[in-house]
Amino acid sequence: MTEFFPDIEIYLMKPDFQQVQDWLTQEFTQLQTVASRDGFSHWKISCGDEEMDVFLNDKAEKSFASLWFKQNKTSWPTDLDCARAAHKALGIEIRCSDSGWKEEDGENDDGWIKLIRGEEKPVHW
Q1: HEC readout, the chain
Q2: Range of the structural domain that residue 89 is part of
Q3: Is 1 within a domain?
């Protein structure tokens, strides 16, 4: 059985915020905007009886925005599972960690996956 990550974070290359919001609205039963300003959105999302905070931050890394599910109450066990769904729905490059993160791991650029044009490739980031 796959262990669910406690949170999920993926990185989207130059996303259209409205397209991301539309995708999240299709994926979850309810989406409520908590805050939205240039380059940042915070939503409360319902998944069945569960509620979670989701943040989209355009200033994460160069051309990438961070999409962070603070509590993983999704159907996706891992970052990679979420990245696959986002890539399929949005059609843009997505990057994510290929495994869970532990504090003792520190700063490590290895273990990243790039999803681009329907393919998954390891990437040094």
Answers
A1: CCCCCCCEEEEEECCCHHHHHHHHHHHCCEEEEEEEECCEEEEEEEECCEEEEEEEEEEEECCEEEEEECCCCCCCCCHHHHHHHHHHHHCCCEEEECCCCCHHHCCCCCCEEEEECCEEEEECC
A2: 8-123
A3: no
